[in-house]
Amino acid sequence: MDIFLIGTISYLVGSIPFGFILTKIFLKKDIREIGSGNIGATNALRTGNKSIGYSTLVLDLLKAVVPVIYVKIFYQDFLYITSLCVFFRSCISNLAKV
Which pTM value belongs to this model? Predict the structure, then answer.
């Protein structure tokens, strides 16, 4: 049960669209209609607001690092599955609009 829970939480944390959230809150725009249409940090930077672009970059990095560090400290046996779930979610978001 622990492995399923950790895998699911890691996957869900990796799916948080910070670029979309930040541009929607602070600029009141839909980032998917700006530039390339991607919700990542590069397109967030294209909105003309550097702080949103850099914030998106930092938060995207943290959403990959935080679950892995947490599991490394508390559940060392599940480190590889957590890393795989976070990585897998990151790859899916780059390949297809999820």
Answer: 0.78
